[in-house]
Automatic annotation (TrEMBL):
Domain called YbaK/aminoacyl-tRNA synthetase-associated: residue spans: 47-169
InterPro entries in the cross-refs: YbaK/aa-tRNA-synt-asso_dom_sf (IPR036754), YbaK/aa-tRNA-synth-assoc-dom (IPR007214)
SUPFAM superfamilies referenced in this protein's UniProt entry, alphabetically: YbaK/ProRS associated domain (SSF55826)
Highest taxon in the source lineage: Bacteria
Protein name (record): Cys-tRNA(Pro) deacylase, prolyl-tRNA editing enzyme YbaK/EbsC
Gene Ontology MF terms in the entry: aminoacyl-tRNA deacylase activity
Range of residues in the leader sequence: none
Family matches, as CDD domains: PA2301
One Pfam assignment: tRNA_edit
Protein source organism: Microbacterium pygmaeum
């Protein structure tokens, strides 16, 4: 498979480079259906440039091809629920509307950095929906699911993954949600 949204980077099959993946991501790819796993490419990057804006500017990847994984924590009384939201980098997740209702929560907010890292086993700034806890819903914005290719985290800050939006939508627990990502501004 070839990946096209790599800017100045060259992606290779992620399964061939487990050293460029967070442990939960590598494990999930090894357990995944081979035809799905082969849609995922990986490229090494400078970990200091993992944040979306810096990554895109440095490596020539468009913001429209970048998708962010946002970990949301919803609460209703003493019940706490988590979800991962996949939105284009040019949008913001509708946390207090769509996500809060989907989690059946009274309140919803971004999970704290320490909590997100602890629960996912991934580095902050590299969290990705591949390899998340099995009971977390993965909410995928329609625009992400429809993208021919997106760039996402790899579980670590030192690389990025490249895959079709349809591959994200095919993850276990994934739900395609129209309007999840709202335009910034």
């Amino acid at each position: 498979m070839s990946w096209n949204e790599t800017g100045s980077l060259t992606a290779t099959a992620a399964l061939q480079h487990p050293d460029l993946l967070g442990a939960p991501v590598a494990d999930a790819l090894r357990r995944a259906d081979a035809s799905w796993a082969h849609t995922v490419g990986v490229a090494a990057i400078d970990p200091a440039l993992a944040d979306t804006a810096e990554f895109c500017a440095t490596y020539g990847v468009s913001l429209e091809a970048s998708a962010n994984c946002v970990v949301i924590k919803g609460k209703r009384g003493s019940d706490v629920r988590f979800a991962a939201c996949m939105i284009l980098a040019t949008t913001r997740a509708d946390v207090n509307g769509i996500v809060r209702r989907r989690l059946d929560a009274r309140t919803a907010s971004f999970a704290g950095m320490d909590e997100a890292v602890l629960l996912t086993g991934m580095e902050y700034g590299g969290i990705t929906p591949i390899g998340l806890p099995a009971d977390w819903p993965i909410l995928v914005d329609t625009a992400v699911a429809a993208a021919s290719e997106v760039v996402i985290g790899s579980g670590i800050r030192a690389s990025k993954l490249f895959l079709p939006g349809a591959s994200l939508a095919a993850l276990p627990g994934a739900e395609i949600i129209d309007g999840l990502g709202r335009p910034v501004g």
